[in-house]
Write a structure and sequence with these properties.
With 256 residues, this protein is mainly α. It has 11 helices and 7 strands.
Length: 256
């Protein structure tokens, strides 16, 4: 078995850290310009990542997204409820030495993109997939020159090597914060197309979630959704909406 990558080690560390209770130790949260960007400050001091990097982000807007999570905490700090903070930790601690591997992982996700697998039946589900997924596949082709092959049923359909190479190169050409967001979005949604659509503003977080879970939503309308599945869906929706805010905030003007 291959050793865990820097990104996988960072995520594992954060999972472990999120299970530890931590009493809130600050009263005020602010954002201020610092060397390299904008820092999130707790009572004037910068919190640090598991690898001891201060929370410094490239734009004021994305720093505000992270700061809002710290401000929303109650008597206890619950890292599990702070997806933008966890994503920032991953960027600061793990992305730089693993950029090529992260970009390649996005291409792997594109090779089995969930929205390229259309059902054979029932007719209502097929119609909904056509209405939601086909425009997104067409958008990837028209806006990003990424041609994806559609499949029917569960039989694997190979995607064009040129498309996968283009996805990898597109991801590799972004900054660390965008690359981390793309990787998380693709893993969360099961779709590189939806990750790219979130980044480029083609879809909202709610639309990305609905597209990635179209089959489950269709079934739930008929059979209902149990409490555990509903809780899991709520968490994915919240993460999708955070990622939309993340990409939008990264697009704001950077300090000169």
């Amino acid at each position: 078995m291959a050793p865990p990558s820097p990104v996988e080690r960072s995520v594992l560390t954060q999972i472990i850290e999120s299970l530890k209770p931590m009493k809130r130790f600050y009263s005020g949260v602010s954002v201020a310009p610092v060397d390299g960007g904008f820092g999130v400050l707790l009572d004037g001091r910068a919190p640090r990542s598991p690898a001891r990097h201060p929370l410094v982000l490239p734009t004021e807007a994305v720093a505000e997204v992270v700061a809002a999570e710290w401000a929303s905490q109650g008597e206890s700090i619950k890292l599990v409820s702070m997806p933008a903070t966890r994503l920032t930790h991953t960027v600061l601690d793990a992305i730089a030495p693993a950029r090529a591997a992260v970009a390649a992982k996005l291409a792997e996700q594109a090779a089995a993109d969930v929205i390229c697998y259309f059902a054979d039946y029932p007719a209502g589900l097929v119609a909904r997939q056509e209405a939601v997924w086909t425009p997104l596949i067409d958008w990837a082709d028209e806006a990003l020159s990424l041609r994806f092959e559609r499949a029917r049923g569960i039989v694997h359909a190979a995607q064009p090597p040129a498309t996968l190479a283009a996805v990898r190169d597109l991801a590799a050409g972004t900054d660390d914060f965008t690359l981390a967001g793309l990787a998380l979005a693709a893993a969360t949604l099961g779709s590189a197309i939806l990750a790219l659509a979130l980044w480029r503003g083609r879809v909202t977080g709610a639309q990305a979630f609905a597209a990635s879970h179209l089959d489950e939503i269709f079934q739930a309308e008929t059979w209902g959704l149990d409490a555990e599945a509903s809780q899991r869906a709520d968490a994915i929706l919240a993460e999708s909406e955070m990622l939309k805010a993340w990409f939008s905030a990264l697009a704001q003007e950077k300090p000169t």
